[in-house]
Amino acid sequence: MSLIQAQNITRIYSLGDVELRALGGVTVTIDRGEFVAVMGPSGSGKSTFMNILGCLDKPTEGRYLVEGIDIGGLSRDDLAEIRNNKLGFVFQGFNLLSRTSALENVELPMLYNGHAARERHDRAREALRSVGLAGREDHHPNQLSGGQQQRVAIARALVNRAPIILADEPTGNLDTKTSREIMELLVRLNSDSGITIILVTHEHDIAAYSRRIIRFKDGVVVSDELTQKD
Fold first, then answer.
1. Number of folded domains in the chain?
2. What are the tens digits of pLDDT across the range 93-137?
3. Which domain holds residue 64?
4. Residue 72 — pLDDT band, cuts 50, 70, 90?
5. How many CB atoms lie under 10 A from the CB of residue 7?
6. Contact, 59 vs 72, CB < 8 A?
7. What is the pLDDT of residue 99?
8. d(CA 23, CA 2)
9. Cα dist from 10 to 41, 52, 60, 129, 142, whole Å
10. Cα four-point dihedral sign 55, 101, 97, 187
């Protein structure tokens, strides 16, 4: 069974008397351990698709399944549980709490799962170590570079040991060298830990780190190709 199954997904938004068809019958399957880049121009439907994958939105028509669970009939609480346990999120803007240490930022997703303080500390330290930030646990975001802040965000996405990371333009605020370092980190996490990574990007050189590129245009998939990798 595939990890992610999007089956003939349509998403229509009503704007007064006008209907906007953001997705028009998208079918995509993603297996465990894949590294997929999602590309497309503004308004192509890629962001709507990622919102559905992240259980932040639901299809108007069609089905979306995560590990065989159909999100269509789930309650708000059930969706929140899936987001917390099966999905890790990484954003362009890092989304760290400015007055909170790196360790505390990484611990945040575990607060919703009722983990004891010792377990939260230990797992957050382990996650920070895995992204190369051992020794930075007590630093606040303003004491960290942009690349280090994104590493904290990736550690936060890892800490609940979710099988999927959804990364929305994760290098958009970073310089070329730091972008390369972040992408190499994601590649390592994918290859060493088997984490499935789905990445939205406008940049072809960033998409080239993936093993598969799905391109959207006008609400539909126009290509779905493997990249040339060993």
1. 1
2. 889 999 999 999 999 988 877 778 899 999 999 999 999 999 999
3. 4-226
4. confident
5. 16
6. yes
7. 93
8. 21
9. 18, 10, 6, 41, 42
10. negative
Which CATH number do you get for residue 217? Answer: 3.40.50.300
What pLDDT was estimated at residue 229? 62
Report how far residue 91's alpha carbon sits from residue 26's, in angstroms, rounded to the nearest whole number: 24
The C-alpha atoms of residue 87 and residue 81 are separated, in whole angstroms, by 9
Residue 207 exposed, middle or buried by CB count within 10 Å (0-12, 13-18, 19+): buried
For residues 82 and 187, give the distance between their C-alpha atoms in angstroms, rounded to a whole number.
24
- Determine the residue type at 30: I
In the chain, at which residue ranges do the beta strands (DSSP E only) sit? 4-15, 18-30, 35-39, 61-66, 69-70, 87-91, 164-168, 196-200, 212-217, 220-226
User: Tokens 């987001």, residue?
Assistant: 83
